[in-house]
């Protein structure tokens, strides 16, 4: 990260897009942007790290795995331009957390209400599999993101990789020398891990592997989002 940490969410988002800390990820994201998929041959790919997207005063933070090579790596916005995003944004719209059910590209009018989306790793990885070392290199960006978000109340982890990253994030925010959580909270769909500064809520990732097989259904995702809204609602009189 920069010597002088960004002081605003906007400044952080701009700084994220210039990161080149992971050579393998830099090479892959740029190769994909040059070669492009045939269906998007006429498009100019983003081909850079993906900043967070959504409400700067979000009470709910969604954390994904990493950008898809021909989704966010193409469009420049989290979960935008692929089947996973189609599934996720439709659910956010049903929950009243998004202004429209579709996410096509940056500038398409989509806005999130009370929600921000980020990822454990900000660059598209080969085979959609970032390494633990790449996760750790990316973590300072997310630490700073959480420091700049004034009101998060719950982090919804989309998949086990995001769950693990969020547990590490909680430890990093607790300060140097903070012990790991014992027993370690186990990931599962609907699993909850109370703790400071915010609880975690588990959700199967909306990948095609999960949605096409019925491992994750719209009703299951709706249930997790409803629980996130319940947790995030301020207590009466607060």
Task: Describe the overall structure.
With 238 residues, the chain is an alpha/beta fold. It has a single domain, classed as Uracil-DNA Glycosylase, subunit E (3-Layer(aba) Sandwich). It has 8 helices and 6 strands; from the N terminus they run H-H-E-E-H-H-E-H-E-H-E-E-H-H. A 6-stranded mixed β-sheet has the order 1-3-2-4-6-5, sandwiched between helices. The longest helix has 17 residues. The model has no long low-confidence stretch (mean pLDDT 94).
Primary descriptors:
alpha/beta; Uracil-DNA Glycosylase, subunit E; 8 helices; 6 strands; 10% strand
Characterize the biggest β-sheet: 6 strands, mixed
Q: In the CATH hierarchy, what is the architecture at level 2?
A: 3-Layer(aba) Sandwich
| Tally of contiguous helical segments | 8
Mind telling me the C-alpha Rg? 17 Å
Taken together, the total number of domains comes to 1
Task: Describe the secondary structure blueprint for this structure.
Elements: H1 9-16, H2 23-35, E1 53-54, E2 60-64, H3 72-75, H4 83-94, E3 115-119, H5 132-148, E4 154-158, H6 160-174, E5 192-193, E6 200-203, H7 208-211, H8 218-232
Parallel strand pairs: 2-3, 2-4, 4-6
Antiparallel strand pairs: 1-3, 5-6
Helix pairs in contact: 4-8, 5-6
């Amino acid at each position: 990260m920069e010597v002088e940490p960004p002081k605003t969410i906007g400044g952080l988002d701009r700084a994220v897009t210039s990161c080149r800390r992971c050579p393998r990820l830099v090479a892959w994201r740029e190769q994909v942007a040059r070669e492009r998929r045939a269906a998007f041959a006429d498009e100019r790919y983003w081909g850079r790290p993906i900043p967070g997207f959504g409400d700067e005063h979000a009470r709910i933070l969604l954390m994904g795995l990493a950008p898809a090579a021909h989704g966010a790596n193409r469009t420049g916005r989290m979960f935008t331009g692929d089947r996973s995003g189609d599934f996720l944004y439709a659910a956010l719209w049903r929950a009243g957390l998004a202004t429209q059910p579709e996410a096509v590209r940056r500038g398409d009018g989509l806005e999130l209400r009370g929600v921000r989306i980020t990822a454990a790793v900000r660059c598209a990885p080969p085979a959609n599999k970032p390494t633990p070392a790449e996760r750790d290199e990316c973590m300072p960006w997310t630490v700073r993101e959480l420091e700049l978000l004034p009101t998060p109340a719950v982090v919804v982890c989309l998949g086990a990789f995001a769950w693990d990253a969020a547990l590490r994030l909680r430890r990093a925010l607790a300060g140097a020398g903070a012990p790991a959580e014992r027993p370690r909270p186990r990931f599962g769909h609907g699993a909850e891990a109370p703790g400071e500064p915010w609880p975690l809520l588990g959700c199967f990732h909306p990948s095609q592997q999960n949605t096409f097989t019925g491992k994750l259904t719209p009703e299951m995702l709706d249930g997790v989002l409803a629980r996130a809204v319940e947790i995030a609602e301020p207590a009466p009189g607060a």
